User: What shape does this take?
Amino acid sequence: MKKLLYILLLLPSLVFGQTGAGYTASGEGYINYKSYKTHYGTGASSTYNGVTYNGGANSTSEFNAFVDTNQPGTTLTHVGQVSPFGSTGLNGGQPPKWSHDYFAIVFSGWFKPNKSGTYNIRTLADDSSETRYREVGTTTWSTMTYQWGCCSYVYGTATLDNTKWYEFEFRYQEYTGGQYYYFEYSIPANSSSPIYNRISSQHEFGTWTNIDPSGTSTTTGPQVDLDLEFHSQLAPEEYRFRVYYDATSTQDGTEWFNTSTMNSSYYLDDDGSKDVTDYLNLVKMSDGKKATTTGGSVEWCVVYDYDSTNKRYRVGIDKREFASGFTFTDLKKLQLFDLWDDEITYKSDDQYWAEYYIYTDTELDFTNSTSSTYIRDANGFYGMRAEFAFEDVEIYKGHKVSFMNPSTNIEGWTAEEFMDDYITVADVVAGFNELAGGGINGGLKGDLSGVQLQNSDVNQDGEFDFQDSQIGLSFLTGGETPFNGTLSEIMRIVPKSEYDNTTTTNWKTQTNKSPSTSFTFNLIDTIQTLEYKVSFIGDVNLSHSATQSTSSPAVQSMSVRNSSSLTEKSNGLEVLLDISKEEDKIIVTLDLPENNFNLVGSEFRIGFDNTRLEYDKLETNSTMNTFDAKRETYLKIGSISTDGSQNLNSGVQYKIYFKSTQSFDSTLGLVSVKKSEVVDSNAKQIGVIIK
Amino acid sequence: MKKLWIIILLILFSCQPDELMLVEPLPQYEMVFEETESSVVDGQEISFEILQEENHWLIISDEETNSVVAKESFTSVVGINTRKIYTKSLPKKKLQLTLETSTEVLKSTYIVID
Assistant: This one.
């Protein structure tokens, strides 16, 4: 029992406090940590892209390799926050980690020192360590101390300003044996004769935080809210989804892992929204290198004149500026003085130069650069006296939200019955009407909006034609259809802006016109609301799909008005129901009276107790195309005139026969009329009351 | 001695077996229309009293659509009538159940299908 309680208490931290699930930064008084398993956990060396690490770190670049998750021997095992003052922080270096050997720890965050001046710093680590910092807003690390090997005090200095924030990265790695990291300092007043204090709650050194103090962001990381708009007929809270992250090193979307190690799934709220921040994988991954520059004395860089045709600059960097073994295709970002600080594209490299493109619609302003003294206009190119440094670029992994079939949580839910709900005789008539409405010149009638046309393209060939309407008719009447009964064949999750701006002219070229139960998104360090609208293939009259916003004039003028008019019911037609028993047969009779509605379609859904009855036959006096589509627990019966040449003005009677498989004294509830729908020649629904 | 005889007589009479009255249990009926609302399960018997022998209808309606969902016609007997209700084909919701003749609605209640 004691062990069980211990496991239960430990479980939340195992699941949420460590890998993958992310954490909320608390800010002041906390620093971040990352724990890595290195050397495959066995002591073996690891190689990635020509860079190998082995044993203890002997340089900054080798230490970079230790904590590069692209290295096959390295795995990020834990992320979180700790106090800088305790043994899990900078006074011991023991945050959660996978084991006591073959690991690396990286502490990071920001500090503001208590004093201004030159601090004396010393650190004690087992094994190699690096203690470095940089002023917020700058890109180059300054090293306080470092040690390649084990295990004595190493000393350094840091000249700091107590009005400024500094970003820090203190890291150490352990091969075998003892493992620890201690940070100690002596205040500037004692710089000539240092008196070292080991960091603790009595000797804080300064203010520490793991929330960016620059104030450029109100959050410390991504916050993602989903906002899916469903039709009011549907219940968003019945829709369940999982959150996945792109598990590939190239982020090509070929392999996705659930962000939860428990393979968890989540429900939308009843308004279609959900805050999924807690379900994200916030562990960053390496994404190549960024080059930063400072003014120097040698022209290590040339920028050729602007190529206005291709809207780009060609940039050459002398290969002597790169470290040995550098993979030139890995360089993906460049900060070039104050001229450019963004992505670059690898072009080529030869014996002397590595060349890249800067793509920009706006030309660089060489003349007014604050670094113009380092720039020489050489008539055709610019020579840059720039010294290069390189740093890792880290990015969040791609994410995906994927919806599950409601059958996994709603008993008895089937895609077929759901489709029977929204692909009805009214949709089929509306489709045929649209196709036949172009007159002798062909073409479409023009009643349907862009979203309706997308839904009408049932066979997904990029056109709406009679093939689609025939499929709809076949589904209605119980024939063969391309659908196999999964939500992924019919559900469309479309970005709200795209959905609302889909028109009759652009519907074929819209990105998200095909069915999909998932969508991908990238994380950024701020709040994102992902707005989508949900629609369904085959839902021509949008009876179960989100409505388009009326903000778009093109949409407002035509589609919304027409789509809503297709689902509005008017007037009322009384259909007489009789249910009788004759010997072993139950007979359901529906009498639709004479009328002047010019009805070209009718559909009735008759439920039956399939444990006690079997469907036998349908008899009718209708001269129109009559159908009886048998499903497991119900029957769809009705009539349709797809070309509108016939109608039900003279009334119609349907007699539906069921055979009983056992004897009954009572029959109440063995059969029922579950739905009814009639539609006129303009695809407009007429209200039906069963009497 | 007189007291002894009294005691003996008392003992003798008290040892005679009791006479037990066997009572037939009264039939139990679910008088469905006496409740304003009741949950029903598949195959459940429902009972109601009828005062006149004629053709009656039990009708299940959905107030949301104002439509009849299911019905049954039967010839009644005067007194308590019992019928079965099957729920597998009925929508899972609150429905109205009425007892009617060709001219009037006699009784009404709500049934909940789970």
User: Anything to note?
Assistant: The radius of gyration of chain A is 35 Å. The mean pLDDT of chain A is 89. Chain A touches chain B at residues 577-580, 607-612, 633-634, 664-674, 676, 688-691 (CB under 8 Å). The CA atoms of residues 569 and 648 of chain A lie 18 Å apart.
